[in-house]
Each structure stands twice: as structure tokens, then as C-alpha cells.
Amino acid sequence: MQLTDLYIVRHGHPLLNTGLAYDRPPGPPLSEVGRAEARLAGLYLAGRNVQRLYASPLERAQGTAHAIAAETGLAVITEPALAEHRHDETFDAVRARIREFLCRLEQDLVPGVALVSHGSPIKAMLQILSREQINLSGHIYPNGNPVPTAGIWHARRSAQEWSLDLVFKPVVATPAAHVPV
Asked: Do strands 5-10 and 152-158 pair parallel, antiparallel, or not at all (unpaired)?
């Protein structure tokens, strides 16, 4: 059995102005909006062929993953390779850890996996899976992210090629203080 479906989820909207470093654990937790977004992502994934759920160790990704787990019945597996792009890390280093993680995923022998991560690692993953062919110019969200908060890219393998589609964007009524990140 080989990996055929990857659901690549960006964490839900984080709580702002916490004073916590954004790029190091624990990082900010989810805001009220982020919790609602994460639940919607979980409802979307509940009907999909997902056997494993991996998440970055940062609190906003863990909160998103646990909301997904509540809807899917999956256990959350913490994966350091999915962590936020640190301010002292190059994008090439992010790409290297994502590439290594994707190689490890191929050994899992499960067809469907969901990953909860952050904008930069998701961008690296999309580039790697598309063999550098993806055009993300139509997918620029706040702060240059390739997916909105709690949005989901679906990577589907046919033969040895991956097709990539942004399949889910949560719509949550937001309080006036909500600022996209």
C-alpha cells in the first residue's frame, strides 16, 4: 500500500499579541475564531480517507489537530519537522526537513494522511510534491501564506505524480477584533 492522499492543513487563526514567540514552542494558542476554523477543518476531514494525523509541536497547530482529532477519531502524532519556519532558519533548511519527513511518510504504508503545519513548511511541501511546478500566485493569503488559516490543500497521487488542489477554506463569522495572519 502506498501513500495516495495528503491533506495539508494550516493551523487555525492564532491569538494575537500574546508576547509569545511565534516561531518557537509553545507559540500562541488558537483564538476563538481559530478554534471554530479548526472544528470546520475537522468536519471536512471526517469524511475523507485519513488514517494518520500529524501536527507541528506549536500550540496553534496542536489545537487545530486536536479539533480535527475530535471530529475524526484519529490520534494526534506530534512531528517536529512540521514546525514553523524559525527566524534563524533558512527556507532551504525548512525544505530539507519537509523533504525528509515526506520520505518517512512513504514508509508508513497508509494511503491517507493529514498534516497540520504552518505557511512556510506548507509552501515547501507544495513545491516538493509538484516538483517545483506549482504556481502559487493565485494563492497568496495574509503574510504571504499559500493557504488561509485552517485551509486545506489536497495532494492526490496518480502513478508517481501529485495533483494539488486547495479544497477547503473555512468561513467563520469573525469578531471585529479579528485580524488575519
From this structure: antiparallel
